Amino acid sequence: MPDAPLTPSNTLVVSPRPSACPGLWRIVSARDGGICRIKLPGGLLLADQAEAVSAAAEHFAGGVIEATNRGNLQIRGIGSDHAGLVESLLAAGLGPRDAASDDVRNLMLSPLAGHDPSMLLDVRPLAGQILDLLQGTPRFHQLSAKFAVQLDGGEGVAMLDHPHDLWLSALRLEQRDWLAFGLASCPADGQVLGAVPLEQGLALVRAMLDRFLDLASPEQSRMRQLLEGCQVDVFIDGLGLQLRRDAAVLGWRREGAQRPWLGAVAQHKGMALGVAPPLGRLSPAMLRGAARVARQWGDGSLRLTPWQSLMLTNIASSDLGQARVELSALGLLCQADEPLARVVACTGSSGCAKAQADTKADAVELAALLGSGVPGSVHLSGCPRSCAVAHVAPATLLARSPGRYDLYLRDAHLPGLGALRASDLTLNEAGAMLALPTEHLDD
């Protein structure tokens, strides 16, 4: 099914290329039905589009909508009418009319891009140019559906720990705006390889993608795979740009404390309000209700975040309380100290054949044992693929059988999930260990 041609209209015939990664066109089978992933430009979802997604989830699927860890949405439990689903989403402006250009729209921004008072740059104009480049350049459609780019404007609300094939981060040197860049890493701790003036940002992205496709073999679909056999200096040599690689650039590190992404968040003007669906799952009523609140109290848009949550922007301070009351009544988590905000979980065995445990149900039980704490600090994963988060959480419970988990704590000196602290734990045992004070869960 995921690789069969879809024909939503009499004038359009598209054959999505083979991939295990869901997309708008590529509906991938799972235990609970098909999965369709809707890639949002910079995480932006207009209120009308939120209503269209809600209606599609009700009419063509089982009513389960998920916020993903890269600021997108996906619909689960899709039935047999794939074409009807896709056409309804296209009609709402939620993707291009060919699968290849949809696959490559993997560009992450801060959910407060253009609004964050900490930002150095409003990166939204450049982001639009990069998305146009990815969608409109047939050669770049050869990139893997997982190949991802991050554009960081120096915002305080920003995911800096997700690895990307290419990342660009704003810096200011000598009263001029530059974009530092790195490969197969993340802005938080990745090696800075150089910088270009802001006005050459689009040219840098084009040159990097062209160079990757020139050098990568068919088996090397990601930048990290290519760099295992290709020196970085060889990769960036001769790009033909105003590349700066002096000590001021190579020694630069992305700074700034992480601002909260749940609850009230200051903007340049007005306020933003971050809310999270429990365990990343939205019902159509939740999403429709959030769209209504965004229209009434905000600017009529929702921003999907890489923390599987939403942000409503441009809310007047005087309206914040009422917006919070209405969103909380929908079942959305509106404050960082709510126990369920502390836990992240993958789909689990109820929807995924690879999962060894029902992680969603287990996460609810575990949250009640843990109480409040750092949002997103405990990750339940049904298998080693770690689909729910793209970075390593402070604590990971890796399922080994129904209701039983191995506990790992993040360790910067160890690869993978970190240090194995205990094996074959029940939820009560895991909750008791995680409830103990530990510096690892507060970083």
UniProtKB/TrEMBL annotation:
Keyword Endoplasmic reticulum: no
Protein name: Precorrin-3B synthase
UniProt-listed Pfam families: NIR_SIR, NIR_SIR_ferr
Species in which this protein is naturally found: Pseudomonas putida (Arthrobacter siderocapsulatus)
Gene3D superfamilies named in the record: Sulfite Reductase Hemoprotein, domain 1, Sulfite Reductase Hemoprotein,Domain 2
InterPro entries reported in the protein's UniProt record: Cbl_synth_CobG-like (IPR012798), NIR_SIR_4Fe-4S (IPR051329), NiRdtase/SiRdtase_haem-b_fer (IPR005117), Nit/Sulf_reduc_fer-like_dom_sf (IPR036136), NO2/SO3_Rdtase_4Fe4S_dom (IPR006067), NO2/SO3_Rdtase_4Fe4S_sf (IPR045854)
Occurrences of domain Nitrite/sulphite reductase 4Fe-4S (ranges): 102-240
SUPFAM superfamilies: Nitrite and sulphite reductase 4Fe-4S domain-like, Nitrite/Sulfite reductase N-terminal domain-like
Molecular function as annotated in GO: 4 iron, 4 sulfur cluster binding; heme binding; metal ion binding; oxidoreductase activity
Keywords: 4Fe-4S, Heme, Iron, Iron-sulfur, Metal-binding, Oxidoreductase
Taxonomy, superkingdom: Bacteria
